[in-house]
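Try this one yourself first.
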């Protein structure tokens, strides 16, 4: 529609202007898929990641009344205020991998959802979930819940997980995936120490999380 047509519909009460380029039909409710489609046209590499990606693929532990949607992207973005009102979210641009390694190959649209909404495959979502463990503030993910989630990940693809860990540059993430894998008892969780050895050089990783609790990972 032209700007003149849009202004007419807004003035006539048919449309609600949310922000520049974003409108909502009067009386309608913005959907999560619609919001993410809008954002995906503005944020490079935007996708559903971590805990939300697992939840959308049937892996969940606690069912929240109004869960935050976990968003990942490759570039910082100033979100309009209306986004939070319609879709509580967390967003991060943490670089987990070497520059030449593209995660696009591990992003997929889900059946019966918009093709514009990309979601991390479970193996990538696991690394993103691990990245959130121990962080302060609203982005923090509890280790206990992560353990419960991983307990249901029986069929992760070893070849995909290996590719991700081989190219991951975050020591904390690799160590947490190793520990979560070992605690799961599944085949994909075996023999992950070799990926840690590539990065850590036998050093412990430690960080103080929300509430003063310290997370320490063995070499």
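Now uncover the answer:
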């Amino acid at each position: 529609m032209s700007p003149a047509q849009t202004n007419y519909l807004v003035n006539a009460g048919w449309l609600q202007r949310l922000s520049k380029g974003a409108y909502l039909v009067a009386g309608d409710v913005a959907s999560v898929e619609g919001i993410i489609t809008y954002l995906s046209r503005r944020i490079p590499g935007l996708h559903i990641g971590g805990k939300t990606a697992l939840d959308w693929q049937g892996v969940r532990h606690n069912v929240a009344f109004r869960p935050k949607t976990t968003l990942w992207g490759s570039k910082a973005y100033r979100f309009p205020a209306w986004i939070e009102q319609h879709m509580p979210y967390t967003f991060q641009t943490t670089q987990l991998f070497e520059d030449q390694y593209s995660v696009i190959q591990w992003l997929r649209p889900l059946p019966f959802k918009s093709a514009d909404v990309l979601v991390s495959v479970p193996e990538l979502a696991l690394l993103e979930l691990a990245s959130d463990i121990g962080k302060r503030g609203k982005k923090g993910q509890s280790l206990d819940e992560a353990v419960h989630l991983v307990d249901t990940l029986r069929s992760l693809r070893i070849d995909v997980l290996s590719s991700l860990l081989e190219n991951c540059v975050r020591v904390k993430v690799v160590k947490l995936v190793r520990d979560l894998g070992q605690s799961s008892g599944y085949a994909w969780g075996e023999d992950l120490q070799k990926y840690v050895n590539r990065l850590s050089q036998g050093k412990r990783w430690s960080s103080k999380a929300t509430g003063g609790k310290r997370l320490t990972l063995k070499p």
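Discussion: The first strand starts at residue 15 and ends at 19. Residues 31-217 form one domain.
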